[in-house]
Amino acid sequence: MPKISLPNNWNPRPDQRPLWDYLERGGLRAIEIAHRRWGKDAVALHFTATAAMQRIGNYWHMLPMYAQARKAIWDAVNPKTGKRRIDEAFPKEIRKKERVSDMFIEFINGSSWQLVGSDNYDAYVGSPPIGITFSEWALANPMCWPYIMPILEENRGWALFITTSRGNNHAKKMLDLAKSSPGWFGEIVPASKTNVFRPEALENIRTELVNIFGEEHGEALYQQEYHCSFEGAIFGSYFAKQMALAETQGRVCSVPHQTGLEVYTFWDLGVDDSMTIWFMQQAGKSFHFIDYYENTGYGLEHYAKILKEKPYNYAEHYMPHDADAREMTNSEVALSRKEVAENLGVKPITVVSRVRNVDIKVQVQIPAVRNLLGQCWFDKEKCAKGISALEGYRAEYDEEKKVLSNRPLHDWCFTSDTHLLTKLGIHRIMDLPITGEVLTICGWKEYKNPRITRENAQLVEVVFNDGNTVRCTPDHLFLTENGWISANDLQSNTVIQSSLTQLHNILKVGFIGFIQAKDTMLEVAKGYILRLGNQLLEIYPKGATSITETRIRQTTAYQTLNASRFQNIYRTIGQMRTEENLKILQPKPGCWHPNGINLKKEDYGTVDKHNALKHGQNGNARKEIVSSVVKNLWHLFAKVVLPKSIALLIATPLAVVEVNKLNDTEDVWCLTVPGVDHFSLCNGAIVHNCSHGSDAFITFAVGYVDHPKSNPNLYKIRTRGGPNGWMANY
Fold it and tell me: How far apart are CA 372 and CA 590, in angstroms?
């Protein structure tokens, strides 16, 4: 056998050497954010070849979608050599066999390598890896890592995450983790630090993208793909460049509270929306943002309590114009929100005047924020949500004219009849209680405060391949296989990430199948109310919602959903006594009635059954009988309906058929899901929810900085133009 040297006819470039050396030294966790054509997959494949020959085990190369794997890796050809990339990394001399059908290679020493997808990560049970590459990690389902991580922890396996930036998402958070965690490796490699592209080639690429997509969009794409910008990917972002500069200059860092300085707060008051507060200390000419708080669904008492709990000495609180609006309270006189806050100890309060039109906001307020961001420092941990809101604050995009509009985008809204997946079933967003749980890619999560977020909004209709449609604002974000995309930009056959097709936990999928057919089941259950009492209405939802919390229990003692013997059914609904029915209704050998009552020979089959039946009309039926019916209904449904519904849910990827622009307008709704910022529609489609931390920051820019009392020098500069100066616009 000829000798093979690994890596096979390949050596890492100088800019690839730090990652390679870390892995060769036995490093177990690495994330590499690198520009297009850097060779991320080549590094991963060649290292996997060397690792597989040194330690026998299973190795995976995971793409965001399994369907991408064959084209992107298995059949991919190196244009410089004309050979398949896997043939270069895994020469035939080290292979024992390969299976083209499932893209699997077995090596001569017993190790194996396989291409898999993050959209089906939990389908590979039984072959745990000891090494895995997450390719294009920013586009992958982030829930695959919590599933795989314990496996690698147990067997001391390694994980390599390689990707190009895609906004401030889970890949960015993992990079931040890697930089602050011992044992991790994390780096960013833009095209300017490698020799893959000549400077003139990069300039040609930028020029071409700008000419095709326009200045804003083209520049954003260029910065994202070739300079690994996490902010540049947000098309139309007002503050992306300023926030990127703050990151580069080290002004997004640890900014501790200075006890000798007073703290100013800047608010955005939500009526039914989220309320946000920035906490700032002025140190010379710099503004130190030391904290940020955001919540929804609470009154001013909650926020006053939060302020008191923080160890800050407050100087002044700045609130937007609606703080002066009077609302009915428990007192006899209607109080403004400012007065309510002051009565709670939040004072003194300065109310920032309202702009008269949206043009002022774009032409004056937003430039004011841009000018001030160069003087701002942000605490990286405490202000993380606020920073994300600033980076995501952007202009609306006119799809017909292909230009950015002159108004800020307040996105992510649906019509009131939009159906969502909640833990108590499928419900319209307008009918949801103030709190509850909705399905996310992280499982069931608490939501808060369903509310109207915009009146008379323009709408589009998104049609899915499962027959469902949804009406929403054109800017509403959907999670696709290529990241977050607004409804207006969705194309035919765009694959939508679904909480039903990605989380193949059989209990969860079964439960979703159950609540999707809840209306049918409830009609069946109502039929028992006349005989068994109104307690069923209380017990039925509890029985349904507890399914995901239990394992598979012993099958019901009867083969049908009867709560009693045949005699009882016969006397209740007049069913004919036949030998076949008697055979079906017999209990299984060795089993007792599910409610624990032994069967006897009395006329109605069980002790006290006659009395229980008699009291059914007035709602006093025995609880154990009703509970038995609920359990039996579920067992029958699980046997007959669920297997087919589960198979359909798992087998059919969710995709867009078309997006139609609608001429009518309508009030639109949204809700808040703290911590995950997304939720699922009734068909599992994952959509974003909203946040408004940037509006509170504008309160700082036009309230505090332009206020003559707090900043007399700045005020003089900005009002130097007399009555026509900046302040004349407010």
Answer: 78
Residues 6+ apart with CB under 8 A from 351: 319, 320, 321, 323, 324, 338
pLDDT digits (tens, 9 = 90+) for 158-174: 999 999 988 777 888 89
Pure H helices in 393-505:
499-502
Residue 461's nearest CA partner among 511, 417, 420 is 417
Instruction: Please return the burial class of 647, using the count of CB atoms within 10 Å of its CB with bins 0-12, 13-18 and 19+.
Output: exposed
For residue 468, how far is the Cα from the chain centroid? 21
End-to-end CA distance of the chain: 83
Based on the fold, state whether residues 588 and 660 are members of the same structural domain. Answer: no
Residue 27 CA to residue 14 CA, distance in Å, equals 19
| Number of folded domains that form the chain | 5
In this structure, are 399 and 425 located in the same domain?
A: no
The answer as to whether 50 is a domain residue is yes
Q: What is the 3-state secondary structure (H, E, C) of 257-294?
A: CCCCCCEEEEEECCCCCCEEEEEEEEECCEEEEEEEEE
Q: Which of 487, 497, 500, 495 is nearest to 439 (CA)?
A: 500
Please confirm whether the linkage preceding 7 is cis (ω < 30° from 0).
yes
Q: How far is it, in rounded angstroms, from Cα 255 to Cα 251?
A: 9
How is 207-251 classified by DSSP, letter by letter?
Answer: HHHHHHH-HHHHHHHHHHHHH--SSTTSTTBSSHHHHHHHHHTT-
- For residue 524, tell me if it sits in a domain: yes
Q: Which two tokens stand for residue 497?
A: 């990430």
Q: Which of 339-353, 532-546, 683-697 tops mean pLDDT?
A: 339-353
pLDDT, the chain, mean: 74
Asked, for residue 211, whether it belongs to a domain, the answer is: yes
Q: Do 397 and 440 fall into the same domain?
A: no
716, part of any domain: yes
Q: CA 562, CA 39: separation in Å to the nearest integer? A: 64
Give the integer Cα–Cα distance in Å for 472 and 662. 10
Claim to verify: residue 262 and residue 377 sit in the same structural domain: yes
- Full residue range of the structural domain in which residue 490 is found: 414-503+653-689
Does 592 or 394 have the greater pLDDT score? 394
SS3 letters for 332-392? CCCEEHHHHHHHCCCCCEEECCCCCCHHHHHHHHHHHHHHHHCCEEEECCCCHHHHHHHHH
DSSP 25: T
CATH number of the domain to which 41 belongs: 3.40.50.300
Report the pLDDT averaged over residues 265-283.
80
Q: Between β-strands 29-34 and 184-189, what pairing exists: parallel, antiparallel or unpaired?
A: parallel
Residues 133 and 224 in one domain: no
- Mention every residue, 6+ apart, whose C-beta is less than 8 A from residue 106: 95, 96, 97, 98, 112
* Residues recorded for the chain: 730
pLDDT at 418 over 90: yes
Amino acid in position 367: P
Q: Give the residue among 564, 565, 547 at the shortest CA–CA distance from 507.
A: 547
pLDDT confidence tier of residue 427, bands split at 50, 70 and 90: confident
Residue 634 burial (C-beta neighbours within 10 Å; 0-12, 13-18, 19+): buried
Residue where the block lists tokens 């035919």? 492
